[in-house]
Task: structure prediction
Amino acid sequence: MADKGGGGYGLTGPDEVRARLERTGYLLDEGLAVACFLALRLHRPLFCEGDAGVGKTALASALAQAIGAPLIRLQCYEGIDASQALYDWDFPRQLLHLRAAEAAGVADADRLEGELYDRRFLIARPLLRALETQPCVLLIDEVDRADDEFEAFLLELLSEYAVTIPELGTLRAELPPVVVLTSNRTRDVHDALKRRCLYHWFDHPGFVRELAIVRRRLPGVTARLAEQVTALVQALRAEDLLKPPGVAETIDWAEALDALGATELDAELAVATLGSVLKYREDAERARGLDLSAILAVRGA
Result:
């Protein structure tokens, strides 16, 4: 549980952060453990950048579990604006209230206006919910999909952890949320926003760590199958693919093969199930042109 004194949410150092996250099933390296601890200790947003499927979004969920706080997610997209992310007024309920007041003979215009813009008619979107929920983890997912204006708005909000609603005044978080921003780097996010944050680049994991992640997430999959799938994904990433598979696709592939009753992988089965790991026709064609049997043979297939 978080403490308002800024003590790192009860976590004494990066090693404890790492251990707590690993208990949730999220495996991380030392650099990410340090970044997470500093984000908790200093109440600084953590900006996570890297290819899709490497565990950026999953980190926010794991952090929420680790500190026993709810996860509030804002999914960014092209054209998102402050009202869609912060708050809006519930106009249908306001109209019903106005009609009910008129039917009851209420004629005081100032009283009616005050009632219409009461907090009960405010719809809290993810950012406002995060300011009002202590503690919580706020995930601002795929911020690179939003535009410059929304980035500027986020910068202002994350600088003060407060927002002014003209009808209600300034609402400020008593305890700043733990903020995780993710970017797939479809475009460059402005330096001003990055400077406000701690930064961590997510690489694809090496074989040993990726295998450990698969075994942790899918304990029912045979050790042989998990090792073969991981090795094949690692080999595919070394090719010039349009969209190299992430850890999420490795897990999906192993899960799909397990659902088919497979205990080990061969080239024929790999080709038949490529749709679980590769999402572009060109990438699938390139994979079919590889000597998959030779790659699997390296792992004792």
User: Anything to note?
Assistant: Residues 1-6 have pLDDT under 50 and may be disordered. The two ends are 47 Å apart (CA to CA). The beta strands are 46-50, 71-75, 87-89, 122-124, 137-141, 162-165, 169-172, 178-183, 198-202.
